[in-house]
Amino acid sequence: MTLPAPAIAIRRLSKSYGRTEVLHGIDLEIARGATTCLIGPSGSGKSTLLRCIAFLEEATSGTILIDGQPLGFEEQAAGRRVRLPPQRIRKVRSGIGMVFQQFNLWPHMTALGNVTEALVTVKGLSRQEADARGMAQLRRVGLEARARHYPSELSGGQQQRVAIARALALEPEILLFDEPTASLDPELTGEVLNVMRDLGGEGMTMVVVTHEIGFAATVGQRIVFLDHGRVLLNGTPAELFAAPRHPRLTQFLETYLDRGAAMLLKPA
Amino acid sequence: MSFDGSVILAALPAILSGLKVTLGIWVAATALGIALGFVVAAFRHFGPRPLGLALRLAVEVLRGTPFLIQIFLLYFGGPFIGLSLDPVPAGLLGLSLYAAAYFSEIFRAGFLAVPRGHVEAAQCVGLSQAQIVRRILIPEMTMLVLPQCVNMAVILVKETAVLSIIAVPEATAVISALGSQQYAFVESLFLLAVIYWGLVEACGRAGRALETRLSKFRFA
Amino acid sequence: MTVRLFELMLKAAGYTVVISVASIAIGLLIGILVCAAKLSPRPWLRWPASLFVSFFRGVPLLVQLLLIYNLLPAIGIAVPSVVAALIGLSLCTAAYQAENLRGGFLSVPRGLLEAADMAGLSPWQHFRRIRAPIALRLTVPALVNEAILILKASSLISVVGVIELTRTAQNLAASTYEPLLFYSVAGGLYLAINWVVAAGGSLAERALRRGRLA
């Protein structure tokens, strides 16, 4: 049996800001139809890696293939790295949806307006068609009743669910989450994590940067542990969290006891 | 001193004509200032650097010098460079340029105040650069700066009074002339002050009401 | 323009600075009183203070100046025009400064005041050690801004016959038939003074930065 081609293939990806290199030659494959959680201490480069996959940051060297298609840059025969034309970049990017830590809903549009904006302006759908699709996505995240509300009238958890609906509306192959619950009050994280759990169950390819270790351990099918800009560990939760555990991971987990790491550290 | 109201009553038609000029110049200069200020802010935010620097210098000069000096330069200095304007067009042009400098700063700050993440979210759903400017940046910026624009409009009502110095027949000029002809200067000036006061208070109130209504479209 | 005329302009600019500084200082004193009255729980203090602020912020400075300049002789007080000008500028800036100060006091976070209460500070200590220092730090940028506004607004006192920078430029422009030159030089001088004030302001802000709100 051959393994299916990875949804995302990252090769020797490096990223520097000025002189500081934050990602050092990352090699990583993200499996299709699975939930992959990127964990690691702050400053480990996990958010930068995710933003490179979203093409919000441009890597300094290396390549990212989305479904076998190069994202942003293509490496040519002589090792030359060429920037692709904008239409091609946009085409590859259209298969990727992104959910931000700060939700980033557009404050001057209703929940439904946020979800349908790209359907109308990018996909060229009619208002009615876009609204119908938008409502379907809001229903999926349980916020049909809030469609006409503005972001300022929604709770943080509701805003993040609208942001997820906005990403889903374009029917992406891959959904990226950048610490989706980090700006939420603890009692609101559950509703967002539940939506994400459902999406994972439906077979959506998801890459989640998170500090919710409990979520990563129970919903994540793959865990990637980054440390100092390198992939230190990459495996199933069972492989990573079972003893004998890597000492850096143990050290990291001990600082996240309140985010569900306590149960992982209990002696089996 | 005795307060003589009858003088003012007799002068009502003249006062009304002065008020009409004040309101006309105010509305026109505010509209022109907003339009020009927006163009300047857009060029400074999105345009090439040298142009941005030149515009910045112009804005700094207009904001750093008294409006009265600008008006003198335009009205008395203009004819020496082939720009002979009557008081009303000179006043309107001067006030519009002055307004544009301040409005452009308001808009520029507004563009900078739109969170980067809102633009990134738009990039992620595939909006083009032009669509992001039109659909996200400009509407969001407008919501952010509307209250300050009302503030600036209030400042401009008061600046129109300066135009009386170059003999624009607006309210201050008409009423002071009236007062000196009829020896009821203090009464006339009181009336004038009350008129401006009412105008400014009304604008301020409208601005605060607008701000409350806009809060819904702003940040959560 | 001869050196002698330029010296005349410089001297006039100095006069403009002196009048502006004096107005800002007097205006700050009046502004503190007005601000205190506006923050007072007693309506008979609050109400007149609000009226004062509303009036002096609602009426063009030029009209205020004309009013004071003509009102004083009418009620039998003869003062030189520079005094009338100083009164006008000071009252106007007092209204703005009172509002700036009030804004500063109102933006001191409640939690800090509650912490001071819990630490057992007396009401006066509470004001002197906690409220006032934080509020003043918050008001510095607005004060610098106000200084620049008053410097520019002081050009209007030329209308009531004070021979400051604008009036000097006007006189020289009229007698030499060179308005472009003299108004440009006057504008340049205002600009230069404003840059100095702004630079001083950012130095002050930097010095206060370590003590600002976290």
Give a description of the structure.
The complex is a heterotrimer of chains A (268), B (220) and C (214). Chain A is of the alpha/beta class and 268 residues long. Chain A has helices spanning 46-53, 86-93, 111-121, 127-140, 156-169, 186-201, 213-219, 237-241, 247-254, 262-265, and strands at 8-17, 20-30, 35-39, 61-66, 69-70, 73-75, 81-83, 96-99, 174-178, 205-209, 222-227, 230-235. In chain A, strand 1 and strand 2 (20-30) form a beta hairpin. The two termini of chain A are 34 Å apart. The model of chain A has no long low-confidence stretch (mean pLDDT 88). In chain B, helix 5 crosses helix 7. The mean pLDDT of chain B is 89. Chain C has a single domain (3-211), classed as MetI-like (MetI-like fold). Chains in contact: A-B, B-C. The interface between A and B is medium-sized, with 32 and 24 residues.
Give descriptors for this structure:
heterotrimer, A: about 270 residues, alpha/beta, four-stranded antiparallel sheet, C: about 210 residues, mainly alpha, MetI-like fold, about 0% strand
Low-confidence blocks of residues of chain A: none
**Beta strands of chain A, count:** 12
Order of helices and strands of chain A: EEEHEEEEHEHHHEHEHEEHHH
- Helices of chain C, by number, come to 8
Provide the CATH architecture of chain C: Orthogonal Bundle
Q: Please state the structural category of chain A.
A: alpha/beta
Strands ordered across the widest β-sheet of chain A: 8-9-10-3-11-12
CATH superfamily of chain C: MetI-like
Total number of beta strands of chain C: 0
Question: Quick recap of the structure?
Answer:
Chain A has helices at residues 46-53, 86-93, 111-121, 127-140, 156-169, 186-201, 213-219, 237-241, 247-254, 262-265; strands at residues 8-17, 20-30, 35-39, 61-66, 69-70, 73-75, 81-83, 96-99, 174-178, 205-209, 222-227, 230-235. Chain A is α/β, with parallel strands linked by helices.
